[in-house]
């Protein structure tokens, strides 16, 4: 199985580090976020991956070259002309997964000890289009799942916005469960033929479109270690969790 690590973001929340460096190379106990996630994927037998780059792309490419991919074969998806967000970035890299049935997607600023092998197995048993790692943590935006664990919508609890617009008329509305997305997906490669968007777009848009006719499941790993290393203060927290 192959994977993609999203590393093209500007990392504006991680300033001042990202004024001079890409977020992907932010160090946690002497190892960059990118290195840690490459090694994390290796634990589950994934040694072929593609990394999208935009902000200080040359530094990421140099780090991969200098460290010989930390033992993995790493391909670059170049977004230096325009950052394409998660959906557009995945679509641009879609060629890499031509011969794959399923593949893994993860954000470079996520650190976790989630058992990815269990998540992949659950995805393959359900034969769904995508499986999304989630937890019960508090956040401002949530995916909404029915009692069967199927994606039905999205909610911003700060603004009250919900998607799709008619979500409140959903037969399971009262039973929908809010889950915080962890930035890790296992996806069936048929998704590329189903995407309607082009250019710059989010995977949230894709999932909210495709959930109408495709099963998109959640995989709850609330008992795992997890941190979004998005802000300077979260680096210290990450260093306490991941040696």
Structure in words:
- The chain is α/β, with parallel strands linked by helices.
- It has one domain (2-241): Spore Coat Polysaccharide Biosynthesis Protein SpsA, Chain A (Alpha-Beta Complex), CATH 3.90.550.10.
- 27% of the residues lie in helices and 28% in strands.
- It contains eight helices and 14 strands.
- It has helices spanning 17-20, 33-42, 57-66, 85-92, 116-126, 191-194, 203-210, 232-241; strands at residues 2-6, 27-28, 31-32, 48-53, 73-78, 102-107, 110-112, 130-135, 141-145, 151-156, 162-163, 177-188, 216-220, 226-228.
- Helix 4 (85-92) crosses helix 7 (203-210).
Please specify the SSE layout and strand pairing:
Elements: E1 2-6, H1 17-20, E2 27-28, E3 31-32, H2 33-42, E4 48-53, H3 57-66, E5 73-78, H4 85-92, E6 102-107, E7 110-112, H5 116-126, E8 130-135, E9 141-145, E10 151-156, E11 162-163, E12 177-188, H6 191-194, H7 203-210, E13 216-220, E14 226-228, H8 232-241
Parallel strand pairs: 1-4, 1-6, 4-5, 8-13
Antiparallel strand pairs: 2-3, 6-12, 7-14, 8-12, 9-10, 9-12, 10-11
Helix pairs in contact: 4-7
What is the CATH third-level topology name? Spore Coat Polysaccharide Biosynthesis Protein SpsA, Chain A
Biggest sheet descriptor? 10 strands, mixed
How many helical elements? 8
Q: In percent terms, what proportion of residues is strand?
A: 25-35%
CATH class: Alpha Beta
* Integer-rounded radius of gyration: 17 Å
Count all strands and give the number. Answer: 14
Helix content bin:
25-40%
Low-confidence residue ranges = none
Number of domains: 1
Specify the structural class: alpha/beta
> Any guess at the CATH architecture?
Alpha-Beta Complex
Shape: globular
CATH superfamily: Spore Coat Polysaccharide Biosynthesis Protein SpsA, Chain A
- Average pLDDT across residues? 97
Rounded to the nearest angstrom, the distance between the terminal CA atoms is 27 Å
Secondary-structure element sequence? EHEEHEHEHEEHEEEEEHHEEH
